[in-house]
Design a protein that fits this description.
alpha/beta, two-stranded antiparallel sheet, globular
């Protein structure tokens, strides 16, 4: 049995213009490799977690700016306890100075990064890179993803939401991988999708059933069993790895001057983990407008 842990990066709706691109990424792990991956993720988080406060590999927290740190003189030279105390003190003063909606917005921002306020910017960058390297250096992990230019999707298909098209691509490629394994390596391995809690859960369930019964653009789902299971990301390490990798993918594609960029360097940590067969890239597609796109994905795989 292979488990495919799915998470999204970016907003899927065309009217949600905070992100031009939407990415859906899956981390595939065989059941026999689960314990080893889980231990490695737990060890990584324990090295960076503040004592008594669980740390989630979540890029919204890890890669965000913690503005209070910039106001604290000598922050990087403090120990973790002092750093956290100073940040929480500033936040409490800000919270008490606000009221109503402003206080609620401040609290939401504080909650998003509460578990990492003891880490400097450099330490959070190291955590992000080590999480990517954990995936990139794990022979047991295989990646599948679709990253969509939402404006191109609307123009080309009339669709205003990228979840369905991305889910169809990723699940069908995962199923094709399972079929390939079944043909070439003896016993059949089935697959199961595990997805971060998502407002589009009903759509994903319905699509999985439809792909199995009526088919998708490229055939039928034959080896993915059940409908997706929806879980809380803070409890599931596979979802957290998908979050980190999905963020790196979307940020790379969104960066217009890619060659030599920070985003390219981070994406290169995991690019080789996307599913290939006979040296052809199958597990990753960039659905975009320009036939001349020169990103690594399009250069390697081609368009379409």
């Amino acid at each position: 049995m292979y488990l495919l842990y799915l998470d999204a990066s970016g907003t899927p709706g065309i009217e949600q213009c905070d992100h031009k691109h939407f990415a859906l990424l899956g981390v595939a792990i065989h059941e026999t490799d689960w314990f080893g991956i889980e231990r490695r993720v737990t060890d990584l988080k324990n090295r960076y977690a503040y004592p008594g406060i669980p740390l989630e590999l979540h890029c919204l927290a890890i890669c965000s700016s913690v503005r209070e740190q910039e106001k604290i003189a000598g922050f990087d030279d403090m120990d973790w306890a002092k750093r956290r105390s100073e940040v929480l003190s500033l936040r409490e003063r800000e919270r008490t100075s606000k009221s109503g909606g402003a206080r609620a917005n401040a609290q939401k921002r504080f909650s998003a990064t509460d578990s990492v306020v003891h880490l400097s910017r450099a330490e959070r960058s190291n955590l992000y890179e080590e999480a990517l390297d954990l995936v990139g250096q794990s022979t047991e992990i295989r990646l599948f993803a679709e990253v969509i230019d939402k404006e191109h999707l609307l123009k080309n298909t009339g669709k205003k939401n990228a979840v369905g098209p991305a889910f169809e691509q990723v699940l069908s490629r995962f199923d094709a991988f399972l079929q390939h394994v079944a043909r070439g390596h003896g016993p059949v391995n089935h697959g199961m999708a595990v997805v971060d809690n998502d407002p589009h859960s009903d759509l994903m369930r319905d699509l999985t059933i439809m792909f199995r019964q009526s088919g998708h653009q490229w055939g039928h789902v034959e080896h993915v069993i059940e409908t997706p299971f929806f879980v809380d990301s803070h409890l599931v390490s596979g979802i957290q790895l998908a979050d980190v990798c999905g963020y790196a993918l979307r940020r790379y594609v969104a960066k217009e001057s890619r060659v030599g960029s920070h985003e390219e360097k981070q994406f290169l940590r995991i690019f080789h983990k996307f599913d290939k067969a006979t040296n052809k890239l199958h597990g990753l597609r960039h659905y975009c407008r320009a036939k001349t796109c020169d990103c690594m994905i399009c250069s390697t795989r081609g368009h379409g």
